[in-house]
Design goal:
Universal_stress_UspA; 2 domains; 10 strands; UspA domain-containing protein; 281 residues; single chain; UspA; Rossmann fold
Length: 281
């Protein structure tokens, strides 16, 4: 089933226009309805009144924020008209994580962006992105915070470990996989995972049959990593050398606290991936 409703998260950041262009291209490919959901990603008003001397600047800040929102809406509507596409604009005047996520559940695919390390609201954006991936119930296409964005998704790598999350991601990405010119199923082994696979008989041998029934022909590749905590870095490195332009992966197949403390695939992809990544939990 193709994507028929796409939702793009927009904001005042420099990458917002590139994110919108990417979403427009993808929506056009699937003849999908595009929702632009705007949030300023700003602290609550009380934060400006808790520090002495900041209150006088809050009115100026609000004026600037309203101007940024109006400019973003005008750009969104202009680009929709130019593309001859249908869409709608939804704006939140303040950062409101849960209402935004609840509204996101009405879409087939969410288009979001990595949090840039140079962004003043980096911590807020990173926290929001994790919440969207974990609680929206929808696949999230996360775009890198740097570099040129190409919405081709012609060469896709599936990060396959046999987990529930990986299986969910593959099915959520099916419209992209069916349209791709090349799909590679990549299994990254570690000493521990290799022993577990050998004892359980798990592997990547059967996924090609399922995908073939959806008219998706795949290649297989394998790589090795020293430990579970470095699999994400290995995946990013493999993707860069293979020339892929999209990665499909399950999100947080390990407990979320473990990835926060020790690192993991999901955190590496959210922070450092250099191509779009479709994540599902």
């Amino acid at each position: 089933m193709p994507y028929k409703t796409l939702l793009a998260y927009l904001d005042p950041s420099e990458r917002a226009q590139a994110r919108l262009d990417f979403a427009l291209t993808l929506a056009g490919r699937f003849d999908a309805h595009l929702i632009g959901l705007y949030s300023p990603f700003a602290p609550e008003a009380r934060a400006y009144f808790s520090v002495a001397g900041c209150a006088p600047y809050y009115s100026e800040y609000c004026d600037a924020r309203r101007s940024q929102q109006a400019t973003a809406e005008e750009s969104f509507r202009h680009d929709l008209r130019r593309a001859g596409m249908e869409g709608e604009w939804i704006a939140f005047d303040d950062y409101a994580e849960q209402p935004i996520i609840r509204r996101s559940r009405h879409a087939d695919l969410l288009v979001a962006g990595q949090a840039s390390p140079d962004d003043d609201a980096h911590a807020l954006r990173a926290c929001f992105l994790e919440s969207v991936v974990m609680t929206s119930g929808r696949p999230v296409l996360v775009l890198p915070y740097a570099g040129t964005l190409r919405a081709a998704c012609e060469s896709i790598v599936i990060a396959w470990d046999g987990s529930r999350e990986a299986a969910r991601a593959v099915h959520d990405a099916m419209p992209l996989l069916q349209a791709a010119k090349r799909v590679t199923v990549l299994h990254i082994g570690t000493p521990a995972s290799s022993r577990a696979a050998a004892s359980s008989g798990a592997g990547i041998a059967n996924i090609d049959q399922m995908l073939a029934r959806h008219a998706v022909n795949v290649d297989f590749a394998q790589s090795l990593s020293d430990a579970d905590e470095t699999v994400g870095d290995t995946l990013i490195s493999w993707g860069a050398t293979s020339g892929c332009d999209c990665v499909v992966a399950g999100a947080y197949s390990h407990p979320q606290w473990r990835e926060h403390v020790l690192g993991g695939v999901t955190r590496a992809l959210l922070e450092s991936a250099t191509v779009p990544v479709l994540l599902s939990h």
